[in-house]
Structure prediction request, 579 residues.
Amino acid sequence: MKTALYASCILLLGIITICCDDSQSHASILLVKAEQLMNDHPDKAMVLIDSILYPERSFNDEDYMRYCVVRVQARYKNYLPINEDTLIFKARDYFTMRAKKNELAALASFYSGCVYREQGNLNQAMLNYKDAGTFAALTNDTALKGLIMYNTGELLSEHGLYAKALYNYQQAKNFYGQFPEDMKNQQTHCFSAIGQMFMLLGEQDSAFIYFFRGLEIAESINDRQLQSLLAQNLSVAYSETNQNKEAGEFLHRSIRLSLNDNDLPHYYLNLSKLYRDTGQLDSLAFFINKLKQTVDTSTDLYFKASAYNLLAGDAKTNHRYEMAFDYQQKRNEIVEKINEERFQQSIYEVQQKYDYIKQRNLYDLLLLQRQRIIIIILSLFLLLSLLSVFLLRQVVRQKNQMISLQNAMQTLNKTTNDLQKRETSVSRHEKQLRETLLWKFNVLLKSFLLKSELEPFEMMDTKITMAKFEEIVYGKNNRSLWNSLVEIIDELYPGLSHFIRNSYPQFSDTELKVCLLSYAGLPSKIIAPLINQSVNTVNMSRTRIRQKMGLQKPGADFCLFLKHLYDKNRGLRVLKHLN
Prediction:
């Protein structure tokens, strides 16, 4: 039972989810189609928008905010009241602060300004128009830029800032002019508004140029309402220049082309002025009565002020002074009300404040960027300076090292040359000395051998002869033969006997003699008679020498090992002497 209940709940939840997804998908399609139809067919777009049921449930957050913008846009383009559409403010905050989508932010800000304008909060309207212009400047939508500039111009003109309004209208015309074939309707409105500003600024010639240019475009697109508007503007312009005939022609032309009954009070006013100026009193009386019937129902303060002024003048002309006073008082009340609204909501001050804040923010941004650039440049300069100092120190250090190295090389070269010269001289001297010592050593050796050979002879003459020979060879007070041999060997190999005695104090006297004479290159049979030992004793001594020197290999050449130690010791002594 529980399993079936769970399955039913899951199935129901799936059906609801699918239905919700379908509803959301359908609403999104309607919203996209409404956006596509908005510019050319705003009435159809309005129908699509109204067909979306429960929009707050049918969209995600962003699409719902988009829906709020499109809904106000559709109502505005269909001339429906939007003063209660305050959800547009949430959409504005969403797209300007969270979503960061410039085109939607511009649209939301613009239509927020339109809502404020209908509510009578003109200060906020101007601020939102300015914000819309800022966001629109970040897009490529020239039509949106033109729309914002045109409505800003309207707001300025309503407060008597005709020169500034003229600038905005001209900017709007330039934006629309980038697509002359697609935006002729908007261009015509711009030409009409620019002509009106020139009229109010007293530049009638420029006004006529723009009115006729606008009428030409309106005729090219066969727009009766725009033709009526331009014809009415030309009628007023001709009336202001006292060209009543032309003024009448264009006024009647405007009436014939008009499709809007709401314009009738304005026509009654203009016709009354025309017939007053032309002296057609019957027609004047007829339209004066029409004007009296409609003036109180109008909400246009400027129209009512102009109408009451005309009615006061007509009553005064007909000597109805009490009625004239009453109309004049109503006119004064209207003018005072207009001035109060202008004073309370100074669009000029709002615009100046906004421009000042914008310029100040721009200045602060530029100053910050400039300071950032300066800091970066200074940091780079400091870094380059430190790097230069480091590299310079390295170069100086390397240069000093090179100089020291060159000096050392020069010193070494000089020392090497001196040593080479000295070595050459010493080598030559040593060679001569060595040859002399070798000769002396051979003489001693041969004399000893000669003596050994003659010892068996007992003849007195032989002994006398040998004594005489020894005196000649060794000197009169001669030392022993062994000492002479050691002295000669030490001269051939400086300090050899002393080195062997110090290095191997464990050698016996016989072993020391055998080692020294073996190093001198003498064989065993010659060493034996020199030390009064047998050849076998000499060989045994050599064996013991190897053992005491640590040479384990039988028959090892201890002389070669001793030469290695002797040369190493002599080299160390030379280095120590040089240091």
Summary: The CA atoms of residues 92 and 98 lie 10 Å apart. The longest helix spans residues 347-454. Residues 5-21 have pLDDT under 50 and may be disordered. Residues 479-578 form a domain with the Arc Repressor Mutant, subunit A fold (CATH 1.10.10).
